[in-house]
Task: inverse folding
């Protein structure tokens, strides 16, 4: 099942069910007004949503319409919590190089995670307004899961039961500010503007065997200004989402609608598969030549983030957005 | 005006207006169903709320009832964002001692801030369930402000216009986990369980001249198991709330309902006025004797946090809660 949120002038938008080929959709607000409401009452809503989804895929559903993804906001335009891991070890290693950071103690045995703003999330085709090109604007292509309520103390073995939806994210970063904030130990506030998400969120079954061991085992395709930048696979996550969820729930309940991110997707074979953020490329350049030459994004630059199934069908639709100066 | 949220079985509770002496209240859900809704439409709601408040204070309002603060949840039982500063420099200095941390670069010129969980906030009299006494359970008594929508780039000079409400917080910390997470640079997730807030949130005018320069210039009284622990004043904030709000809004819009915290209230005269968290006392002991002797909280321990006006009236009501083992 594929779900999305239609922009309708309200802060939370209107829930719709989208066909597998992303071409058609039908309103689902008779079942739950918003995706957040559906997640809060998942056991009551999901059966009816699945039945509607079957109708949409078969081309017969009340109110069926041709989908224009530009009319979508983020599947969750706002939600109660956005916790982002950094679960790809090769990403961490390169960040350490490029920002000349000390190695993080215990990072192979204990997930890294920060809390980001979840109050103002961007749609896949929304412009991303930022204050200054001098802040080192970078994209970060990630995979994220959406949870129903997870009680405090849920172990990894029970955590995947709570993964209701999967989506892609552009967790943009301001790389000049990031190391300054990181050195305080308090995590990032200014360095993390609004995150953008893929047009649709899908239930794990849509991924078939590519969803295994709490990982999305498919390449994530990233383009910067129409040029391929990388296609690292989600299979190399150093911790699975079950471990990230359990980590987050150690001392708190996670409310329905919580989003957990993978961190920038990255593979050990980065020389072959490329990267999912600019800072990594700068790290590789530094290792190879002693100097980073690739510059960060300028206003007007675009980033495109997409993932395809075995048949070449875009699973989540594309994040395709432009960086603009905040007015 | 004093606002609170009555527990009614829903996740967001029911908005009520409370009398200045905290003895009576009247339902305000005819004006806005929840406090979050009131904040999202503040310009429309506030006039009617003020008129209702005048009636409540005069002892005549529809549905007026005697208030039992134990029936209240947090003013915002959940909200879109909770950003907590660390604006009292003497607190930071003592934390540096007790956790043997390196000095934080630029901390006198750039506010420190982390993002905490805002999806599951505790009421003032709620038990605080935690997984283990071995994690170093500490209270942290703070002052917090609640904002309406703050556009990205709002300068300090315009930030106080967005402060709609003020309240107290117990931003509990798990001190064994906190330095481990801090050293990663990612901020705190496991070390920061659900934060609790005072029974009522008040508009800044309720503080009279004690609200000045973006600071609440009154002592914050903290008791641990019925014994006085400290009463440091909010006047010594190293950054005012206007600076914290502007810092947070540098690269993002802050949605209505965002809470910004002061960090643990702390004064340079901590030997006289005491502290608002246990870790500070342990830092002082370390400085004085080379050894911290005060232990962290045990299950069954209580903390009480309260602030009084010049006439001795409790402004926000008391946070008075017990630490319990999570079931």
Result:
């Amino acid at each position: 099942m594929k779900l999305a949120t239609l922009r309708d002038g309200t802060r939370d938008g209107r829930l719709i069910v989208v066909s597998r080929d992303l071409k058609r959709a039908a309103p689902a607000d008779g079942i739950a007004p918003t995706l957040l409401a559906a997640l809060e009452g998942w056991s009551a809503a999901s059966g009816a949503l699945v039945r509607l989804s079957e109708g949409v895929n078969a081309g017969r559903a009340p109110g069926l319409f041709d989908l224009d993804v530009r009319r979508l906001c983020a599947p969750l335009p706002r939600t109660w919590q956005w916790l982002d891991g950094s679960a790809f070890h090769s990403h961490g290693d390169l960040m350490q190089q490029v920002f000349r950071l000390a190695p993080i103690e215990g990072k192979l045995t204990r997930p890294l995670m920060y809390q980001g703003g979840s109050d103002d999330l961007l749609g896949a085709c929304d412009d991303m307004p930022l204050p200054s090109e001098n802040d080192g604007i970078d994209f970060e292509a990630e995979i994220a899961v959406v949870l129903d309520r997870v009680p405090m103390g849920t172990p990894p073995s029970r955590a995947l039961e709570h993964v209701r939806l999967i989506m892609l994210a552009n967790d943009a970063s301001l790389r000049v500010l990031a190391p300054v904030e990181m050195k305080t130990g308090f995590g990032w506030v200014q360095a993390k503007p609004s995150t953008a998400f893929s047009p649709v969120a899908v239930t794990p079954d849509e991924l078939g065997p590519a969803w295994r061991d709490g990982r999305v085992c498919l390449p994530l395709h990233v383009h910067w200004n129409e040029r391929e930048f990388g296609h690292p696979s989600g299979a190399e996550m150093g911790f699975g989402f079950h471990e990230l969820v359990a980590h987050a729930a150690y001392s708190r309940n996670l409310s329905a609608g919580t989003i957990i991110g993978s961190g920038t997707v990255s593979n050990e074979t980065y020389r072959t598969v490329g990267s999912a953020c600019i800072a990594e490329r700068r790290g590789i350049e530094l290792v190879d030549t002693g100097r980073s030459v690739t510059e960060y994004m300028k206003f007007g630059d675009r980033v495109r983030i997409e993932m395809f199934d075995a048949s070449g069908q875009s699973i989540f639709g594309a994040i395709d957005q432009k960086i603009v100066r905040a007015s």
